[in-house]
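Record 1 of the preview.
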Amino acid sequence: MPIGSIEGAYVTTIEGLSRERNHPVQLAFIAEAVPQCGFCIPGMIMAAAALLKRNADPSEALVREQITNLCRCGVYPRVVEAVQRAGRAMRGEEVIPAGPRPGIDPADSARLVPALVPPPAR
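->
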């Protein structure tokens, strides 16, 4: 969407969705291990949040129809699971555990998520 076409409109970005990174969509994406390279994640999270604002109980078909962001890693099945899980959380049917706090030290992150440990130097 060209920026000029939304002049004067209120626009929420990924940073504005939740200062504490605790929006149900953000938590569900972490819980379902959706993020890989990060290329598509902000757009997918924002599209999912917009979809769930309109319909907190979307079918798999509706999620696939509405979340059209290109993903290089092919995480689409996990995106569907995450969006539906976020919907359950928004409806009060499920509690999603909080992810790492903002500003977490990289070493602490590596202990929490072992895949973040860098490979040994050669």
